[in-house]
Amino acid sequence: MGFVVTLLTTTVIKEEHLRIPPDFFYNAWNLLLPQGTLSVLLSVMAYVRQGLDKEEIYEVMTEEADLLELHPFSFIATPAFQTPEEKHHYTQRLNRETEVRKVLELSGFRYPRNIQDSITLLIKFGILIEVELDQREKIYLDMILHPFPRPEEYLTLDEQKLEEIQYGRIYRWY
User: Fold this and answer.
1) Using CB atoms within 10 A as the burial measure, which of 14, 75, 169, 170 is most buried?
2) How far, in Å, CA of 142 to CA of 123, rounded?
3) What whole-number percentage of the chain has pLDDT above 90?
């Protein structure tokens, strides 16, 4: 794998300057993961820098889920719409999330139902990793910054999706 840089091993990024790594977008993860994943990832990054372990992150983020609207999309209930624009927005999101779920399931993964599922998915894709620090007997999370995982290493993508990702990489349209 060569030289690996993670959130915990870099001293370049200060907590107040945390941001999603550019390679997250370059590799089109933002198009392939459920909406809300960016918010989950930013929150995890902040808690990693604060020194919270995996279980503490789960606990805090579960408590914050309602306040920060971190819940994954629900395919179960259709809300009541007050305007045609609300219905249109919901339909667009439903279509997007249905496509994301289809790709995940085709690849052997489950669409997340809660915060823990969202974090677990990021771990399975190698975006987040589990680490043990200093014999503390706890599992901590860290985030790979370089080399950043590529979705085609984890997901079953059709030719059209692969071409879209490659096009985005060439022209930086993500």
Assistant:
1) 169
2) 9
3) 57
Query: E strand or H helix at 130, and its extent?
Result: strand 128-132
Residue 98, amino acid: T
Contacts of 73 (CB under 8 A, 6+ apart): 34, 35, 36, 93, 94, 97
Question: Comparing 1-15, 22-36, 150-164, which segment has the lowest mean pLDDT?
Answer: 1-15
> Distance (Å, rounded) from C-alpha 7 to C-alpha 57?
15
At 172, list the tokens. 């930086």
At residue 111, what is the residue type?
Y
Phi and psi angles of residue 137, each rounded to the nearest 5 degrees, phi first: 60, 25
Give φ, ψ of 38 to 5 degrees: -60, -45
